[in-house]
Amino acid sequence: RMGRAVAEAAVGLVCAIGPEAAALADEAVASGMGRSSVHHTTDRQEAARWLCERLGPLDEVLFKGSRGMRLEEMADAVIAWAEHAAGSPAASAGAGRDVQAAHAAG
After folding, report:
1. Calpha distance 46→61 (Å, rounded)
2. Cα separations (Å) of 50 from 14, 31, 62, 106?
3. Residue 89 and residue 39: Cα distance in Å, rounded?
4. C-beta of residue 61 within 8 angstroms of C-beta of residue 102
5. Residue 49: Cβ within 10 Å count
6. pLDDT tens digits, residue range 59-72?
7. Which helix (H) or strand (E) holds 83?
8. 3 burial type by CB count under 10 A (0-12 exposed, 13-18 middle, 19+ buried)
9. Which of 4, 33, 52, 57 is the most exposed place for a label (fewest CB within 10 A)?
């Protein structure tokens, strides 16, 4: 149900992490999300890299998962990337990426 809901809500990207999240990714694609906008992995570092390569200016990110998934580590990596990008010369020219990250445990 979650994959269908994110597709219907026109969410831009879905990065599903963990073995149980494969169904979410598959359902999002089956419900109309483009395959290039959906990624499934079991590795948080890979997920952070994938996400950071696709984030745009003023994108917002919601991290949702159980405490056992330790998504705060991924959130920290994305926040560090955004802070670094914001301090780059491109950012001072207005091309920086401002990412707001929220972590919701559940």
Report:
1. 16
2. 10, 21, 15, 23
3. 30
4. yes
5. 15
6. 888 888 778 888 88
7. helix 71-86
8. buried
9. 57
